From TrEMBL:
Organism (species): Pseudaquabacterium rugosum
PANTHER family: DEOXYRIBOSE-PHOSPHATE ALDOLASE
Presence of the UniProt keyword Glycosyltransferase in the record: no
Gene: deoC
Protein name: Deoxyribose-phosphate aldolase
Annotated pathway: Carbohydrate degradation; 2-deoxy-D-ribose 1-phosphate degradation; D-glyceraldehyde 3-phosphate and acetaldehyde from 2-deoxy-alpha-D-ribose 1-phosphate: step 2/2
Coiled-coil annotated residue ranges, if any: none
Length: 263
């Protein structure tokens, strides 16, 4: 996609192609095994366009690295989903990801510590992880559904931005409330206002299932960060089911852009 022009986000095919290019195709089930990860890799290989990344548990990074489609990043989660303050344990996970050839780390912020007024503990963990994975993309999962869309979420954004993360991500998808437009507005405003903002992206995750959902967030990113941000370097979607909707549209079913209740 030519990022210098404003894409028509009302066009289903344009929206589907954008969504796929920015998709972190994800498998984070508690019962994931090698066969399921092989199926994920095969699904990505058969997609009409390469997704941005495959996102898995740290133990599967080597398996994905060996077979992933060229041009697709290998991502894995750390401190997931609980978001503890156990720096030693989290750094072990991050080192496992890096050693196995991971390109990106999706790190859960210790959001409970932040919510309880222990912002220094949360920030220390993020800084330690940033130092442990130089040259790798780092996405900070804020768990926005638990922090709300106010001052605490803004403080979470600033922790990540100050520590040098590459994306702010809404949710693990493991709590009742995932991505919301209200949280996205807070996160995008924080990115735009920060001195590093031009180098930082946004990832919507948790409840992003349809291309109508994608349009909600893409429109906000375009309005706040500009049309140049509509690409995988600064926009990601974390989902396991979104590929079905994308493939339906690219296969000729424009009706697959279904509205989502509340959006």
């Amino acid at each position: 996609m030519n990022a210098s022009a404003c894409p028509d986000l009302t066009d289903p095919v344009t929206l589907a192609r954008l969504a796929l290019s920015c998709l972190d195709l994800t498998s984070l089930g508690d019962d994931d095994d090698a066969a399921r990860i092989d199926a994920l890799i095969a699904r990505a290989a058969a997609a009409p366009l390469p997704p941005a990344a495959l996102c898995v548990w740290p133990r599967f990074v080597g398996q994905v690295r060996a077979r992933v489609r060229p041009g697709v990043a290998v991502a894995a989660v750390a401190n997931f989903p609980a978001g503890s303050t156990d720096i030693a344990r989290v750094l072990d996970e991050v080192r496992t990801i890096v050693a196995a050839g991971g390109d990106e780390v999706d790190l859960v912020l210790p959001w409970r510590a932040l919510r309880e007024g222990r912002a220094d503990e949360a920030a220390a963990l993020v800084r330690a992880v940033r130092a442990a994975c130089p040259g790798r993309g780092l996405k900070l999962i804020l768990e926005s559904g638990e922090l709300g869309a106010g001052e605490v979420l803004d403080a979470a954004c600033r922790i990540g931005l100050d520590a040098g993360v590459d994306w702010l991500k809404t949710s693990t998808g493991k709590v009742a409330v995932g991505a919301t437009p209200q949280a996205a507005d807070v996160m995008l405003a924080a990115i735009a206002a920060h001195p590093r903002g031009a180098a930082v992206g946004f990832k919507a995750s948790g409840g992003v299932r349809t291309l109508a959902d994608v349009a909600v967030y893409a429109q906000r990113v375009q309005a706040v960060l500009g049309a140049d941000a509509l690409g995988p370097r600064r926009l990601r979607f974390g989902a396991s089911g979104l590929l079905d909707a994308i493939e339906a549209v690219l296969g000729g079913d424009a009706a697959a852009v279904a509205p989502t209740a509340g959006y």
